[in-house]
């Protein structure tokens, strides 16, 4: 009974909050939102990152230019570069 109730409540919450699974995969090229944005700046950092690891909604990525590692605990702060992913390139 408890498991069924939890499943029902989770489904209701996900529907109400329009939640969905992320579509990131290891090896995707992404851009990252800036922590602090000024009015004249773009909302994304000018660097390209490659995803190295994903744990739940936490994304670990490495910057292409200098190899700096980045960790973001929310997939909403990471965006696929030009909407590209590995499946699109294979087709």
Structural description of this entry:
The chain starts with a helix and ends with a helix. The longest helix is centred in the first third of the chain and has 15 residues. With 91 residues, it is α+β, with helices and mostly antiparallel strands. It contains 2 helices and 5 strands; from the N terminus they run αβββββα. A 5-stranded antiparallel β-sheet has the order 4-3-2-1-5, with no helix packed on it. It has a domain of 55 residues: SH3 type barrels (Roll), CATH 2.30.30.
Major sheet description? 5 strands, antiparallel
Mean pLDDT: 85
Our measurement of the CA-to-CA distance between the termini, rounded to an integer number of angstroms, reads 45 Å
Instruction: Give the CATH architecture of the domain at 23-35 and 42-83.
Output: Roll
**Uncertain regions: pLDDT < 50 for 5+ in a row?**
none
Q: Which features does this protein show?
A:
single chain; 91 residues; alpha+beta; SH3 type barrels; five-stranded antiparallel sheet; 5 strands; 22% helix; 26% strand; elongated
Outline of the structure:
It is built from two helices and five strands. With 91 residues, the chain is of the alpha+beta class.
List the helices and strands and how they pair.
Layout: H1 2-16, E1 29-32, E2 49-55, E3 58-63, E4 69-72, E5 78-80, H2 86-90
Antiparallel strand pairs: 1-2, 1-5, 2-3, 3-4
Region (Disordered): 1-20
Biased composition (Basic residues): 1-10
